[in-house]
Write a structure and sequence with these properties.
heterodimer, A: 137 residues, alpha+beta, elongated, B: 422 residues, FAD/NAD(P)-binding domain, five-stranded parallel β-sheet, 21% helix, 31% strand, binds flavin-adenine dinucleotide, binds iron/sulfur cluster
Chain lengths: 137, 422
Protein backbone atom coordinates (compact mmCIF):
# COMPACT_ATOMS: atom_id res chain seq x y z
CA UNK A 1 0.00 0.00 0.00
CA UNK A 2 1.31 3.44 -0.92
CA UNK A 3 1.18 6.21 1.64
CA UNK A 4 -0.82 9.41 1.28
CA UNK A 5 1.14 12.54 0.57
CA UNK A 6 0.22 16.22 0.23
CA UNK A 7 1.42 18.58 -2.47
CA UNK A 8 0.93 22.33 -1.98
CA UNK A 9 0.23 24.70 -4.86
CA UNK A 10 -0.88 28.28 -5.25
CA UNK A 11 -3.58 28.64 -7.88
CA UNK A 12 -2.55 31.17 -10.54
CA UNK A 13 -5.77 31.09 -12.52
CA UNK A 14 -6.95 34.38 -11.03
CA UNK A 15 -5.47 37.11 -8.81
CA UNK A 16 -6.90 35.69 -5.56
CA UNK A 17 -4.26 32.95 -5.48
CA UNK A 18 -5.92 30.26 -3.35
CA UNK A 19 -3.49 27.95 -1.50
CA UNK A 20 -4.28 24.42 -2.68
CA UNK A 21 -3.52 21.05 -1.10
CA UNK A 22 -3.51 18.05 -3.36
CA UNK A 23 -3.60 14.73 -1.54
CA UNK A 24 -2.28 11.78 -3.53
CA UNK A 25 -1.34 8.12 -3.20
CA UNK A 26 1.48 7.60 -5.65
CA UNK A 27 0.19 8.80 -9.01
CA UNK A 28 -3.41 8.76 -7.91
CA UNK A 29 -5.10 11.98 -6.78
CA UNK A 30 -7.22 11.40 -3.68
CA UNK A 31 -8.59 14.91 -3.15
CA UNK A 32 -7.93 18.61 -3.72
CA UNK A 33 -8.71 21.25 -1.10
CA UNK A 34 -8.45 25.00 -0.67
CA UNK A 35 -9.92 26.17 -3.97
CA UNK A 36 -12.63 28.80 -4.00
CA UNK A 37 -13.85 27.75 -7.41
CA UNK A 38 -13.41 24.69 -9.60
CA UNK A 39 -10.70 26.26 -11.74
CA UNK A 40 -8.45 25.63 -8.72
CA UNK A 41 -8.94 21.86 -8.87
CA UNK A 42 -8.19 21.86 -12.58
CA UNK A 43 -5.03 23.88 -11.97
CA UNK A 44 -3.76 21.58 -9.18
CA UNK A 45 -4.42 18.52 -11.30
CA UNK A 46 -2.49 19.96 -14.26
CA UNK A 47 0.39 20.95 -11.97
CA UNK A 48 0.49 17.43 -10.51
CA UNK A 49 0.20 15.52 -13.77
CA UNK A 50 2.10 17.67 -16.26
CA UNK A 51 3.27 21.13 -15.16
CA UNK A 52 4.09 23.27 -18.19
CA UNK A 53 5.69 26.68 -18.61
CA UNK A 54 6.61 29.10 -21.31
CA UNK A 55 9.23 31.82 -21.22
CA UNK A 56 10.82 34.56 -23.29
CA UNK A 57 14.46 35.42 -23.84
CA UNK A 58 16.65 37.06 -26.49
CA UNK A 59 19.25 36.02 -29.04
CA UNK A 60 22.06 38.20 -30.38
CA UNK A 61 21.32 39.84 -33.71
CA UNK A 62 23.58 41.52 -36.24
CA UNK A 63 22.72 44.38 -38.54
CA UNK A 64 19.95 45.74 -36.31
CA UNK A 65 19.41 48.86 -34.25
CA UNK A 66 19.72 46.93 -30.99
CA UNK A 67 21.95 44.03 -30.02
CA UNK A 68 19.18 41.55 -29.18
CA UNK A 69 16.20 39.94 -30.86
CA UNK A 70 13.37 38.98 -28.45
CA UNK A 71 12.13 35.39 -28.87
CA UNK A 72 9.48 33.22 -27.22
CA UNK A 73 8.30 29.62 -27.19
CA UNK A 74 5.39 28.89 -29.51
CA UNK A 75 3.74 26.78 -26.76
CA UNK A 76 4.45 25.77 -23.14
CA UNK A 77 6.94 22.96 -22.50
CA UNK A 78 7.29 20.67 -19.47
CA UNK A 79 8.55 22.78 -16.57
CA UNK A 80 11.66 20.71 -15.93
CA UNK A 81 12.89 21.33 -19.49
CA UNK A 82 13.11 25.12 -19.13
CA UNK A 83 16.83 25.26 -18.43
CA UNK A 84 17.61 22.74 -21.17
CA UNK A 85 15.65 24.88 -23.63
CA UNK A 86 17.51 27.95 -22.43
CA UNK A 87 20.82 26.17 -23.07
CA UNK A 88 19.84 25.46 -26.69
CA UNK A 89 18.61 29.00 -27.30
CA UNK A 90 21.86 30.43 -25.95
CA UNK A 91 23.67 28.88 -28.93
CA UNK A 92 21.50 30.76 -31.46
CA UNK A 93 22.25 33.98 -33.27
CA UNK A 94 20.38 35.95 -35.91
CA UNK A 95 20.91 38.41 -38.75
CA UNK A 96 18.54 41.21 -39.64
CA UNK A 97 16.05 41.32 -41.27
CA UNK A 98 13.86 39.05 -39.14
CA UNK A 99 10.07 38.71 -39.44
CA UNK A 100 7.64 38.44 -36.56
CA UNK A 101 6.95 34.75 -35.90
CA UNK A 102 10.02 33.56 -37.84
CA UNK A 103 11.14 30.17 -36.51
CA UNK A 104 14.61 30.37 -34.98
CA UNK A 105 14.73 26.78 -33.66
CA UNK A 106 12.38 23.81 -34.10
CA UNK A 107 11.37 21.25 -31.44
CA UNK A 108 13.15 23.01 -28.62
CA UNK A 109 14.52 20.72 -25.86
CA UNK A 110 13.22 17.80 -27.92
CA UNK A 111 9.57 18.79 -27.46
CA UNK A 112 7.90 18.00 -30.79
CA UNK A 113 5.98 20.92 -32.25
CA UNK A 114 7.29 23.61 -29.91
CA UNK A 115 9.45 26.19 -31.66
CA UNK A 116 11.47 29.22 -30.67
CA UNK A 117 10.04 32.13 -32.65
CA UNK A 118 10.91 35.81 -33.09
CA UNK A 119 8.52 38.07 -31.19
CA UNK A 120 9.05 41.11 -33.37
CA UNK A 121 10.02 42.28 -36.81
CA UNK A 122 13.51 43.69 -37.09
CA UNK A 123 14.38 45.52 -40.29
CA UNK A 124 17.93 45.74 -41.51
CA UNK A 125 19.44 49.06 -40.45
CA UNK A 126 22.27 50.84 -42.14
CA UNK A 127 23.04 53.07 -39.18
CA UNK A 128 25.91 52.19 -36.90
CA UNK A 129 25.12 50.37 -33.66
CA UNK A 130 24.99 52.32 -30.42
CA UNK A 131 28.48 53.82 -29.91
CA UNK A 132 28.15 53.26 -26.15
CA UNK A 133 27.99 49.53 -26.85
CA UNK A 134 31.40 49.59 -28.51
CA UNK A 135 33.10 51.52 -25.75
CA UNK A 136 31.81 49.05 -23.18
CA UNK A 137 32.77 45.94 -25.13
CA UNK B 1 5.20 57.74 -42.59
CA UNK B 2 8.13 56.82 -40.39
CA UNK B 3 10.63 59.66 -40.18
CA UNK B 4 8.49 62.29 -41.93
CA UNK B 5 7.59 65.57 -40.22
CA UNK B 6 5.66 68.42 -41.84
CA UNK B 7 5.11 71.95 -40.53
CA UNK B 8 1.48 71.62 -39.53
CA UNK B 9 -0.89 68.93 -38.18
CA UNK B 10 -4.34 68.56 -36.65
CA UNK B 11 -3.06 66.59 -33.65
CA UNK B 12 0.46 66.12 -32.27
CA UNK B 13 1.05 63.18 -29.89
CA UNK B 14 4.00 63.37 -27.49
CA UNK B 15 5.45 59.87 -27.00
CA UNK B 16 5.24 56.75 -29.19
CA UNK B 17 4.54 54.09 -26.56
CA UNK B 18 1.29 52.10 -26.50
CA UNK B 19 -0.57 55.22 -25.27
CA UNK B 20 0.77 57.47 -28.03
CA UNK B 21 0.15 54.87 -30.76
CA UNK B 22 -3.47 54.31 -29.68
CA UNK B 23 -4.08 58.04 -29.20
CA UNK B 24 -2.96 58.69 -32.78
CA UNK B 25 -5.32 55.97 -34.08
CA UNK B 26 -8.14 57.37 -31.91
CA UNK B 27 -7.57 60.84 -33.34
CA UNK B 28 -8.07 59.48 -36.89
CA UNK B 29 -11.35 57.88 -35.84
CA UNK B 30 -12.71 61.34 -35.05
CA UNK B 31 -12.45 62.31 -38.70
CA UNK B 32 -9.18 64.21 -38.93
CA UNK B 33 -6.28 63.06 -41.07
CA UNK B 34 -3.06 64.81 -40.15
CA UNK B 35 -1.46 63.29 -37.05
CA UNK B 36 2.16 63.31 -35.88
CA UNK B 37 3.78 61.18 -33.17
CA UNK B 38 6.99 62.58 -31.68
CA UNK B 39 9.19 59.92 -30.01
CA UNK B 40 12.55 60.47 -28.34
CA UNK B 41 13.82 56.89 -28.87
CA UNK B 42 14.97 55.56 -32.28
CA UNK B 43 11.76 53.53 -32.68
CA UNK B 44 8.16 53.49 -31.46
CA UNK B 45 6.79 51.02 -28.91
CA UNK B 46 7.79 52.61 -25.62
CA UNK B 47 8.46 50.40 -22.62
CA UNK B 48 6.91 47.39 -24.41
CA UNK B 49 10.04 46.99 -26.53
CA UNK B 50 11.89 45.71 -23.46
CA UNK B 51 8.97 43.77 -21.88
CA UNK B 52 9.72 40.58 -23.83
CA UNK B 53 7.67 38.31 -21.53
CA UNK B 54 4.08 37.42 -22.40
CA UNK B 55 1.03 38.65 -20.53
CA UNK B 56 -0.13 41.52 -22.70
CA UNK B 57 -3.35 41.83 -24.64
CA UNK B 58 -5.62 39.38 -22.80
CA UNK B 59 -8.36 42.03 -22.56
CA UNK B 60 -7.84 43.85 -25.84
CA UNK B 61 -6.97 40.99 -28.21
CA UNK B 62 -8.23 38.04 -26.11
CA UNK B 63 -4.86 36.35 -26.53
CA UNK B 64 -1.61 36.46 -24.65
CA UNK B 65 1.12 38.41 -26.44
CA UNK B 66 4.63 39.51 -25.54
CA UNK B 67 5.29 43.25 -25.19
CA UNK B 68 7.01 43.58 -28.60
CA UNK B 69 4.18 41.67 -30.32
CA UNK B 70 1.57 43.92 -28.71
CA UNK B 71 3.46 47.04 -29.77
CA UNK B 72 3.97 45.76 -33.31
CA UNK B 73 0.22 45.36 -33.88
CA UNK B 74 -0.25 49.06 -33.20
CA UNK B 75 2.89 50.22 -35.01
CA UNK B 76 1.69 48.36 -38.14
CA UNK B 77 -1.71 50.07 -37.93
CA UNK B 78 -0.12 53.48 -37.43
CA UNK B 79 2.08 53.03 -40.48
CA UNK B 80 -0.80 51.63 -42.60
CA UNK B 81 -2.95 54.67 -41.79
CA UNK B 82 -0.21 57.05 -42.88
CA UNK B 83 0.37 58.64 -39.49
CA UNK B 84 3.72 60.43 -39.32
CA UNK B 85 6.17 59.22 -36.68
CA UNK B 86 9.34 61.19 -36.02
CA UNK B 87 11.93 59.31 -33.91
CA UNK B 88 14.88 60.61 -31.92
CA UNK B 89 12.93 63.78 -31.33
CA UNK B 90 11.95 65.38 -28.07
CA UNK B 91 9.09 67.74 -27.30
CA UNK B 92 10.54 70.54 -25.18
CA UNK B 93 7.66 72.99 -24.99
CA UNK B 94 4.33 74.24 -26.19
CA UNK B 95 2.84 77.68 -26.77
CA UNK B 96 -0.46 79.03 -28.11
CA UNK B 97 -0.59 81.88 -30.64
CA UNK B 98 -3.30 84.57 -30.86
CA UNK B 99 -5.43 82.44 -33.24
CA UNK B 100 -5.46 79.50 -30.88
CA UNK B 101 -2.96 77.46 -32.90
CA UNK B 102 -0.73 75.33 -30.72
CA UNK B 103 2.97 75.60 -31.40
CA UNK B 104 4.90 72.49 -30.39
CA UNK B 105 8.65 72.86 -29.99
CA UNK B 106 10.54 69.78 -31.12
CA UNK B 107 14.24 69.14 -30.69
CA UNK B 108 15.40 66.38 -33.00
CA UNK B 109 18.62 64.56 -33.58
CA UNK B 110 18.64 65.33 -37.30
CA UNK B 111 16.55 68.46 -37.79
CA UNK B 112 17.59 70.46 -34.74
CA UNK B 113 14.98 72.75 -33.23
CA UNK B 114 11.67 73.25 -35.03
CA UNK B 115 8.16 74.48 -34.34
CA UNK B 116 5.15 72.44 -35.42
CA UNK B 117 1.67 73.94 -35.66
CA UNK B 118 -1.36 71.97 -34.54
CA UNK B 119 -4.90 72.28 -33.11
CA UNK B 120 -4.54 69.89 -30.18
CA UNK B 121 -1.91 67.87 -28.35
CA UNK B 122 -1.97 64.49 -26.58
CA UNK B 123 0.54 63.90 -23.78
CA UNK B 124 1.66 60.23 -23.73
CA UNK B 125 5.15 60.44 -22.20
CA UNK B 126 4.78 57.36 -19.96
CA UNK B 127 6.44 57.08 -16.58
CA UNK B 128 9.83 56.68 -14.98
CA UNK B 129 11.02 54.53 -12.10
CA UNK B 130 11.53 55.64 -8.55
CA UNK B 131 15.23 55.51 -7.68
CA UNK B 132 17.30 54.91 -4.58
CA UNK B 133 17.03 58.59 -3.56
CA UNK B 134 13.28 58.12 -3.28
CA UNK B 135 13.65 55.50 -0.53
CA UNK B 136 16.87 56.78 1.07
CA UNK B 137 18.79 53.56 1.75
CA UNK B 138 21.77 54.34 4.03
CA UNK B 139 25.30 53.21 3.23
CA UNK B 140 27.93 53.70 0.55
CA UNK B 141 27.37 54.58 -3.12
CA UNK B 142 29.06 51.81 -5.11
CA UNK B 143 28.16 50.83 -8.68
CA UNK B 144 25.85 47.87 -9.17
CA UNK B 145 22.62 49.52 -8.07
CA UNK B 146 19.98 50.23 -10.69
CA UNK B 147 16.26 50.18 -11.23
CA UNK B 148 14.65 46.95 -12.43
CA UNK B 149 13.39 48.61 -15.61
CA UNK B 150 16.86 49.85 -16.52
CA UNK B 151 18.24 46.34 -15.95
CA UNK B 152 15.44 45.05 -18.18
CA UNK B 153 16.54 47.40 -20.95
CA UNK B 154 20.22 46.43 -20.53
CA UNK B 155 19.47 42.72 -20.70
CA UNK B 156 16.71 42.64 -23.30
CA UNK B 157 17.75 45.36 -25.76
CA UNK B 158 21.48 45.83 -25.31
CA UNK B 159 22.41 42.30 -24.25
CA UNK B 160 24.33 43.06 -21.04
CA UNK B 161 23.96 41.36 -17.68
CA UNK B 162 24.08 43.87 -14.82
CA UNK B 163 25.97 41.41 -12.56
CA UNK B 164 26.27 37.83 -11.33
CA UNK B 165 24.61 37.85 -7.92
CA UNK B 166 21.53 39.98 -7.47
CA UNK B 167 19.19 41.11 -4.73
CA UNK B 168 15.84 42.63 -5.71
CA UNK B 169 14.11 45.21 -3.56
CA UNK B 170 10.36 45.40 -4.16
CA UNK B 171 8.01 42.65 -5.30
CA UNK B 172 6.15 44.50 -8.04
CA UNK B 173 5.74 42.65 -11.33
CA UNK B 174 8.80 44.23 -12.93
CA UNK B 175 11.01 43.01 -10.06
CA UNK B 176 9.54 39.50 -10.21
CA UNK B 177 9.91 39.29 -13.97
CA UNK B 178 13.53 40.42 -13.73
CA UNK B 179 14.22 37.75 -11.08
CA UNK B 180 13.26 35.06 -13.61
CA UNK B 181 14.97 36.82 -16.49
CA UNK B 182 18.32 37.07 -14.65
CA UNK B 183 18.06 33.46 -13.46
CA UNK B 184 17.47 32.21 -17.00
CA UNK B 185 20.54 34.17 -18.06
CA UNK B 186 22.66 32.36 -15.46
CA UNK B 187 22.69 35.03 -12.76
CA UNK B 188 22.09 34.00 -9.12
CA UNK B 189 19.15 35.86 -7.59
CA UNK B 190 19.56 35.75 -3.81
CA UNK B 191 16.06 36.89 -3.00
CA UNK B 192 13.28 39.42 -3.41
CA UNK B 193 12.65 41.68 -0.41
CA UNK B 194 9.30 43.39 0.10
CA UNK B 195 8.47 45.99 2.74
CA UNK B 196 4.76 45.16 2.74
CA UNK B 197 3.32 41.99 4.30
CA UNK B 198 2.12 40.88 0.85
CA UNK B 199 3.57 40.78 -2.65
CA UNK B 200 2.73 43.67 -4.95
CA UNK B 201 2.89 41.47 -8.01
CA UNK B 202 0.47 39.02 -9.57
CA UNK B 203 0.26 35.58 -7.95
CA UNK B 204 1.10 34.11 -11.32
CA UNK B 205 4.39 36.00 -11.34
CA UNK B 206 5.23 34.99 -7.76
CA UNK B 207 4.75 31.32 -8.71
CA UNK B 208 6.30 31.35 -12.20
CA UNK B 209 9.14 33.82 -11.58
CA UNK B 210 10.17 32.95 -7.99
CA UNK B 211 8.81 29.58 -6.73
CA UNK B 212 9.65 27.79 -10.00
CA UNK B 213 13.29 28.81 -9.57
CA UNK B 214 13.45 28.48 -5.75
CA UNK B 215 14.04 32.21 -5.31
CA UNK B 216 12.95 33.25 -1.81
CA UNK B 217 10.44 36.07 -1.27
CA UNK B 218 10.91 37.83 2.09
CA UNK B 219 7.84 39.82 3.07
CA UNK B 220 7.86 42.66 5.64
CA UNK B 221 11.61 42.91 5.02
CA UNK B 222 13.72 45.63 3.48
CA UNK B 223 17.27 46.51 2.45
CA UNK B 224 18.59 48.49 5.39
CA UNK B 225 22.20 49.13 4.40
CA UNK B 226 24.42 49.07 1.33
CA UNK B 227 28.06 47.90 1.48
CA UNK B 228 30.97 48.12 -0.97
CA UNK B 229 33.51 50.72 -2.11
CA UNK B 230 33.65 50.73 -5.90
CA UNK B 231 31.32 47.83 -6.59
CA UNK B 232 28.43 46.65 -4.44
CA UNK B 233 29.64 43.82 -2.15
CA UNK B 234 26.65 43.10 0.08
CA UNK B 235 23.42 44.48 1.47
CA UNK B 236 22.07 44.23 5.00
CA UNK B 237 18.45 43.16 4.97
CA UNK B 238 16.18 43.34 8.01
CA UNK B 239 12.55 42.70 8.93
CA UNK B 240 10.48 45.82 9.55
CA UNK B 241 8.26 46.80 12.47
CA UNK B 242 4.65 47.98 12.16
CA UNK B 243 5.81 51.47 11.18
CA UNK B 244 7.89 50.03 8.35
CA UNK B 245 11.20 50.77 10.14
CA UNK B 246 13.93 48.09 9.87
CA UNK B 247 14.72 46.14 13.07
CA UNK B 248 18.51 46.10 12.63
CA UNK B 249 19.22 43.58 15.43
CA UNK B 250 17.31 40.97 13.43
CA UNK B 251 19.05 41.82 10.16
CA UNK B 252 21.50 39.76 8.14
CA UNK B 253 23.98 40.36 5.33
CA UNK B 254 23.46 39.11 1.79
CA UNK B 255 26.57 39.13 -0.43
CA UNK B 256 25.74 40.41 -3.92
CA UNK B 257 27.13 42.57 -6.73
CA UNK B 258 23.81 43.88 -8.01
CA UNK B 259 20.81 45.49 -6.35
CA UNK B 260 17.71 46.02 -8.47
CA UNK B 261 15.13 48.51 -7.27
CA UNK B 262 11.54 47.78 -8.17
CA UNK B 263 9.95 50.32 -5.90
CA UNK B 264 7.36 52.04 -7.99
CA UNK B 265 6.79 54.25 -10.99
CA UNK B 266 6.08 57.97 -11.29
CA UNK B 267 4.37 59.64 -14.27
CA UNK B 268 6.85 61.56 -16.40
CA UNK B 269 5.47 65.09 -16.06
CA UNK B 270 8.42 67.42 -16.50
CA UNK B 271 6.80 68.82 -19.64
CA UNK B 272 3.35 69.13 -18.03
CA UNK B 273 4.87 71.01 -15.07
CA UNK B 274 6.68 73.42 -17.38
CA UNK B 275 3.42 74.07 -19.15
CA UNK B 276 1.71 74.88 -15.86
CA UNK B 277 -0.75 71.97 -16.18
CA UNK B 278 -2.56 71.18 -12.95
CA UNK B 279 -1.35 67.87 -11.47
CA UNK B 280 -2.99 65.50 -8.98
CA UNK B 281 -0.68 64.96 -5.99
CA UNK B 282 -1.84 61.35 -5.56
CA UNK B 283 -1.54 60.07 -9.14
CA UNK B 284 1.38 62.37 -10.04
CA UNK B 285 -0.37 62.98 -13.38
CA UNK B 286 -2.57 65.75 -14.78
CA UNK B 287 -6.07 66.47 -13.50
CA UNK B 288 -8.39 65.48 -16.37
CA UNK B 289 -12.03 65.89 -17.36
CA UNK B 290 -14.14 63.09 -18.82
CA UNK B 291 -12.74 63.96 -22.26
CA UNK B 292 -9.20 63.40 -20.91
CA UNK B 293 -8.58 67.13 -21.25
CA UNK B 294 -5.99 68.68 -18.91
CA UNK B 295 -6.27 72.16 -17.39
CA UNK B 296 -4.52 73.58 -20.48
CA UNK B 297 -7.09 73.96 -23.30
CA UNK B 298 -6.46 71.65 -26.24
CA UNK B 299 -4.02 69.45 -24.31
CA UNK B 300 -5.10 65.89 -23.48
CA UNK B 301 -3.36 63.12 -21.49
CA UNK B 302 -3.44 59.30 -21.37
CA UNK B 303 -1.43 56.23 -20.40
CA UNK B 304 1.23 56.14 -17.72
CA UNK B 305 1.78 59.89 -17.87
CA UNK B 306 -1.76 60.25 -16.47
CA UNK B 307 -1.59 57.49 -13.86
CA UNK B 308 0.51 54.35 -13.60
CA UNK B 309 -1.32 51.42 -15.21
CA UNK B 310 -0.61 47.76 -14.50
CA UNK B 311 -2.16 46.49 -17.73
CA UNK B 312 -1.31 47.88 -21.13
CA UNK B 313 -4.79 46.91 -22.38
CA UNK B 314 -6.30 49.68 -20.28
CA UNK B 315 -3.63 52.09 -21.52
CA UNK B 316 -4.79 51.37 -25.07
CA UNK B 317 -8.46 51.80 -24.21
CA UNK B 318 -7.86 55.08 -22.37
CA UNK B 319 -5.59 56.43 -25.12
CA UNK B 320 -8.03 55.63 -27.94
CA UNK B 321 -10.55 57.74 -26.06
CA UNK B 322 -8.11 60.60 -25.39
CA UNK B 323 -7.14 60.59 -29.08
CA UNK B 324 -10.76 60.72 -30.20
CA UNK B 325 -11.48 63.75 -28.00
CA UNK B 326 -8.26 65.47 -29.11
CA UNK B 327 -9.35 64.90 -32.72
CA UNK B 328 -12.79 66.36 -32.01
CA UNK B 329 -11.14 69.37 -30.42
CA UNK B 330 -9.05 69.87 -33.56
CA UNK B 331 -12.32 69.85 -35.54
CA UNK B 332 -13.72 72.53 -33.21
CA UNK B 333 -16.27 70.17 -31.71
CA UNK B 334 -16.80 71.10 -28.07
CA UNK B 335 -18.49 68.74 -25.61
CA UNK B 336 -20.66 70.20 -22.82
CA UNK B 337 -18.70 71.06 -19.68
CA UNK B 338 -18.53 68.38 -17.00
CA UNK B 339 -20.85 69.10 -14.08
CA UNK B 340 -20.01 66.34 -11.59
CA UNK B 341 -16.74 65.95 -9.73
CA UNK B 342 -15.71 62.40 -8.95
CA UNK B 343 -14.01 62.11 -5.56
CA UNK B 344 -12.25 59.26 -3.75
CA UNK B 345 -13.91 58.18 -0.49
CA UNK B 346 -13.24 55.37 1.98
CA UNK B 347 -10.25 53.15 1.04
CA UNK B 348 -9.96 54.71 -2.42
CA UNK B 349 -6.48 56.01 -3.21
CA UNK B 350 -7.59 57.78 -6.36
CA UNK B 351 -10.22 57.65 -9.06
CA UNK B 352 -10.20 58.99 -12.62
CA UNK B 353 -11.31 61.04 -14.47
CA UNK B 354 -11.64 63.90 -12.02
CA UNK B 355 -14.98 65.09 -13.46
CA UNK B 356 -17.93 63.54 -15.33
CA UNK B 357 -20.76 64.75 -17.50
CA UNK B 358 -24.22 63.16 -17.46
CA UNK B 359 -24.51 62.96 -21.27
CA UNK B 360 -22.46 59.88 -22.07
CA UNK B 361 -20.98 56.58 -20.91
CA UNK B 362 -17.87 56.82 -18.76
CA UNK B 363 -15.08 54.40 -17.93
CA UNK B 364 -13.81 54.98 -14.43
CA UNK B 365 -10.48 53.76 -13.07
CA UNK B 366 -9.69 53.53 -9.39
CA UNK B 367 -7.22 52.00 -6.97
CA UNK B 368 -7.73 50.74 -3.45
CA UNK B 369 -5.50 51.90 -0.59
CA UNK B 370 -5.24 48.38 0.82
CA UNK B 371 -6.08 44.75 0.24
CA UNK B 372 -9.78 44.06 0.89
CA UNK B 373 -11.34 40.63 0.62
CA UNK B 374 -14.26 40.98 -0.02
CA UNK B 375 -15.64 44.52 -0.28
CA UNK B 376 -18.49 46.62 -1.59
CA UNK B 377 -17.77 49.14 -4.34
CA UNK B 378 -20.18 52.07 -3.96
CA UNK B 379 -20.59 54.90 -6.47
CA UNK B 380 -22.62 57.43 -4.47
CA UNK B 381 -26.09 55.94 -4.11
CA UNK B 382 -26.16 55.08 -7.78
CA UNK B 383 -24.34 51.79 -7.99
CA UNK B 384 -23.17 49.00 -5.69
CA UNK B 385 -21.05 46.05 -6.65
CA UNK B 386 -19.58 43.29 -4.53
CA UNK B 387 -15.90 42.62 -5.29
CA UNK B 388 -14.29 39.42 -4.04
CA UNK B 389 -10.77 40.73 -3.91
CA UNK B 390 -9.03 44.07 -4.40
CA UNK B 391 -5.34 44.96 -4.01
CA UNK B 392 -3.46 48.24 -4.64
CA UNK B 393 -1.46 46.66 -7.47
CA UNK B 394 -4.57 45.98 -9.52
CA UNK B 395 -6.57 48.77 -11.00
CA UNK B 396 -10.35 48.52 -10.73
CA UNK B 397 -12.37 49.68 -13.71
CA UNK B 398 -16.08 50.17 -14.17
CA UNK B 399 -18.49 51.64 -16.66
CA UNK B 400 -21.09 54.24 -15.77
CA UNK B 401 -23.99 54.52 -18.22
CA UNK B 402 -25.75 57.86 -18.78
CA UNK B 403 -29.08 56.34 -17.55
CA UNK B 404 -27.48 56.09 -14.14
CA UNK B 405 -26.65 59.80 -14.05
CA UNK B 406 -29.99 60.90 -15.54
CA UNK B 407 -31.57 61.75 -12.22
CA UNK B 408 -28.37 62.73 -10.42
CA UNK B 409 -28.57 66.45 -9.64
CA UNK B 410 -25.64 66.87 -7.27
CA UNK B 411 -22.21 68.13 -8.25
CA UNK B 412 -20.18 65.62 -6.27
CA UNK B 413 -20.05 61.84 -6.68
CA UNK B 414 -18.05 59.84 -4.15
CA UNK B 415 -16.59 56.36 -4.65
CA UNK B 416 -16.09 54.10 -1.63
CA UNK B 417 -14.71 50.61 -1.06
CA UNK B 418 -16.39 49.28 2.06
CA UNK B 419 -14.88 46.16 3.63
CA UNK B 420 -17.29 43.24 4.09
CA UNK B 421 -16.89 40.35 6.46
CA UNK B 422 -17.68 36.97 5.05
C1 LIG C 1 9.37 48.23 -16.69
C2 LIG C 1 7.88 48.03 -16.96
C3 LIG C 1 7.33 46.72 -17.08
C4 LIG C 1 5.97 46.53 -17.36
N1 LIG C 1 5.44 45.24 -17.48
C5 LIG C 1 4.10 45.07 -17.83
C6 LIG C 1 3.51 43.76 -18.01
O1 LIG C 1 4.17 42.76 -17.79
N2 LIG C 1 2.21 43.65 -18.43
C7 LIG C 1 1.45 44.76 -18.68
O2 LIG C 1 0.29 44.64 -19.10
N3 LIG C 1 1.97 45.98 -18.47
C8 LIG C 1 3.27 46.16 -18.06
N4 LIG C 1 3.78 47.41 -17.85
C9 LIG C 1 2.87 48.49 -18.03
C10 LIG C 1 2.70 48.89 -19.49
O3 LIG C 1 3.74 48.44 -20.28
C11 LIG C 1 2.68 50.32 -19.47
O4 LIG C 1 1.50 50.62 -18.77
C12 LIG C 1 2.61 50.92 -20.88
O5 LIG C 1 3.80 50.67 -21.59
C13 LIG C 1 2.42 52.40 -20.73
O6 LIG C 1 2.35 52.98 -22.00
P1 LIG C 1 2.71 54.49 -22.23
O7 LIG C 1 2.61 54.67 -23.69
O8 LIG C 1 1.87 55.32 -21.34
O9 LIG C 1 4.20 54.67 -21.72
P2 LIG C 1 5.60 54.18 -22.34
O10 LIG C 1 5.50 52.80 -22.86
O11 LIG C 1 6.60 54.44 -21.28
O12 LIG C 1 5.85 55.17 -23.56
C14 LIG C 1 6.14 56.54 -23.43
C15 LIG C 1 6.97 56.99 -24.60
O13 LIG C 1 7.09 58.40 -24.59
C16 LIG C 1 8.40 58.77 -24.96
N5 LIG C 1 8.63 60.14 -24.44
C17 LIG C 1 8.64 60.54 -23.13
N6 LIG C 1 8.83 61.87 -23.04
C18 LIG C 1 8.94 62.35 -24.29
C19 LIG C 1 9.12 63.67 -24.86
N7 LIG C 1 9.22 64.77 -24.09
N8 LIG C 1 9.19 63.78 -26.22
C20 LIG C 1 9.09 62.69 -27.01
N9 LIG C 1 8.89 61.43 -26.54
C21 LIG C 1 8.82 61.26 -25.20
C22 LIG C 1 9.26 57.69 -24.36
O14 LIG C 1 10.49 57.57 -25.01
C23 LIG C 1 8.38 56.44 -24.56
O15 LIG C 1 8.65 55.77 -25.77
C24 LIG C 1 5.13 47.64 -17.52
C25 LIG C 1 5.67 48.94 -17.36
C26 LIG C 1 7.01 49.14 -17.06
C27 LIG C 1 7.52 50.58 -16.85
S1 LIG D 1 -9.30 28.54 -7.09
FE1 LIG D 1 -10.63 29.91 -8.24
S2 LIG D 1 -10.79 31.68 -6.88
FE2 LIG D 1 -9.04 30.52 -6.12
S3 LIG D 1 -7.28 31.42 -7.19
FE3 LIG D 1 -7.97 29.70 -8.44
S4 LIG D 1 -9.32 30.62 -9.94
FE4 LIG D 1 -9.09 32.11 -8.28
Amino acid sequence: MTTRRVQNYVCTSCPIGCPLQLVHEGDEIVEIEGQECNRGAKYAKQEFVDPRRTFATTVPIEGALYARLPVKLSAPIPKHLMMAAMGEIRKLSARAPVALGQVMLRDVAGVAGVDVVASRTIPRTLCAPDPRAESRA
Amino acid sequence: MFGRMSKSYDVVVVGGGPAGLAAALGALESGISRVLIVEREPEAGGILRQCIHSGFGLHHFKEELTGPEYAERFITKVIDRDIDVVPQSYVTGLAVDSEGTRLVRVLSERGGLSTIECRSVVLAMGCRERTRGAVRIPGSRPSGICTAGLAQKLVNLDGYLPGERAVILGSGDIGLIMARRLTLEGCKVEGVFELMPYSNGLTRNVVQCLSDFDIPLHLSTTVAMIHGRDRLEAVTVAPVDEAGQPILEKGWDVPCDTLLLSIGLIPENELSLNLGIELDVVTGGPVVTSTMATSLPGVFACGNVLHVHDLVDFVTEEALRAGRFAGEYARHIRRPQDTISLVPGQNVRYCLPHTLSPDRTHTIYLRTKKKLQPCLLKVGDLLERKLRFVVPAEMIHLTIKPELLERFYEDRLQIDLIPLTE
